[in-house]
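Hey L., structure's done. Input below.
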Amino acid sequence: MRKGRPQGSPFARSEECISMKLWQGRLGGDVDERLDRLNKSIGFDARMYKQDITGSIAHARMLGKIGVLTEEEKEAIVAGLQGILADIDAGKLQIDMSCEDIHTFVEGELTRRIGQPGKKLHTARSRNDQVALDLRLYLADEIEATRARCKAVVETLCDVAEKHLHTVMPGYTHLQRAQPVTLAHHLMAYAQMLLRDRERLAECRARTLVSPLGSGALAGTGYPLDRQYVAEQLHMNGVSENSLDAVADRDFVLELLADFAILMAHLSRFAEEICLWCSWEFRFMALDDRFSTGSSIMPQKKNPDLAELIRGKAGRVYGSLTTLLTAVKGLPLAYNKDLQEDKEAVFDALDTVNLCLDVLPPMLQTATFFPERMRAAAAAGFLNATDCADYLVSKGVPFRDAYAISGQLVRLCVERGETLDTLPLEEYRKVHPAFGEDVYPFIDLSNCVSKRKVHGGPAPEAVQAQIETARKALVSER
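Output:
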């Protein structure tokens, strides 16, 4: 075996790696340093080292299967790649950041370790189909990790909701108090959003797990490759149908970024409500001190900066989607270097989404909610006005008339500083004689909520059913 540098040494091959270009046979002389800085991608594609090595192992085994490599060459390559992967994972081998990309580093390290057989690994393969494979494998793995984070948030929402099935609060339209709901019902609305996000990510992952390997630079190869064999080794769903499309396609990245953008829209909406609820004007909740910040000049401040940052980072993810849409919109087939922009955009979005998802469960688990403030806001907002009209309907009054009568009562309450719950019965009867003592239990906020037992409604048993359905969905989807 050829000797390499001692395992565990620092980045010590700058000149060697800079001079080793996989594409430089046609060109003479040194590459301009400015082009090298602009061209190299190892600063961000190094995170795909595991997928690059895994894909190369599958490719080498296939080359052995079809007779391009001897059994000894195949075994040497596979063992060498496995050793590189193990050493990187163990911290014994550091990736040389002076290399052009992760593919260059891995192939160079393999050749240093096993000699000439290492130079045969790239047979019947281009970096165009290689990087497309690496990215697909990497994103497929990361999608599962992001789905797991979404699951943790949904589980937390279910746990908190179950504690607040009877916590009455205002439901809003136009940011105006509208009808009574419960905190549990409100939280489970976000659980539904995240369940849909998980579904979208699962569908995206299925379309991502299509192997482009064997497409070469753009026109396939004359070698009798067994592309399906490679796909099966990598647990992918199949192979691409057109070699031009395979190397030029970044739909799977765009789809993932679009899914991330929708997910961040959901988190941003929730974050905005947290900011509102933590304000003294609402005072529906308070974040634990560990998830709050103060002011450098105003000692009384306790700011929901975490929620504000989540809200702000949604724009960052939207930017990543716009970046790649702009990069691909005018590209002719097949591969163009513009596509290198895909990784920085999607990696940044991935990291941002995961960071936001990670902080939500502990933030919600440690938050304090104020049920009495929520109920008081619901009562003061005349959220039972529709129920008051429904009461009259139950007495035979046409709904349109009942609606107008209920509106008159609200105006009367505002003038007198009352609520519908506290307005004396004689005042009710002055407006319409159909009112009786039974109006008070009919418009009680808890009863108003409890009556709404329709599937998906805010009644405690209806929300409990939503919680159980959400938990079952998490188990069935895994």
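Confidence is low (pLDDT under 50) at residues 1-15. The radius of gyration is 31 Å.

-- N.
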